[in-house]
Amino acid sequence: MADQPQSFPALLHTVLSDAASGSAPELEAIVSFQDHGRAFRIHNQELFCDTVLPLLSLEPMEWDDFLANLARFGFHRLTNAGPDQGAFYHELFLRSQPQLVVGIVRDDELQIDELDCPGPDFSTMPAMARVVRARDPPSIRLMTAESRMIAGPVVGAPTLPFGHATLYGLLRDIIPNNPRLVEDEEEEDIMEDVVPDVDGI
Questions:
Q1: What number does CATH give the domain 8-124?
Q2: Which tens digits make up the pLDDT trace of 9-57?
Q3: Reading across the β-sheet that carries 40-42, which strands appear in turn?
Q4: What are the sequence ranges of the domains in the chain?
């Protein structure tokens, strides 16, 4: 059975994650997540149209088509004055949380004139974990694991080509006695001891 093609939001998240992880550094000057990881900004519209849009669709896509697609998938362009003005966000489109994009559904009733709106004040929220790079030293990977615990656990994250590491995977690597070799039930007990209860955070 052939793999289902990735959705527009999933492809866009892959592009942004590739830029953030360093696997496609040329993209970071074109499009990137904001520092908090809850919105993304297009830094160079012309290069974005020439370089990124062909990656998001098999059909030719123009800038207005891209904006219309964002609107149909429930994204918004932030109009608040401040560092996020002009950035795009969706509550399920978060840095280092690619598994959430499956919840972003297309609604053809949504129109491009609904794209612009004042959004939340992301400065009052915890920053999302940054994308882990394979070459990061262990101390950076541990810091990322801690920030993931603050933001909430990653549940059922898919294996992605750009090397995302889930909270589970990060913690599994730092737990003594190599839990990859223990029985499933024993591994669950170890993870319960290490991962705090983050419900309600």
A1: 1.10.10.10
A2: 999 999 999 999 888 888 999 999 999 999 999 999 999 999 999 999 8
A3: 31-33, 40-42, 88-89, 76-78, 116-117
A4: 8-124, 138-194
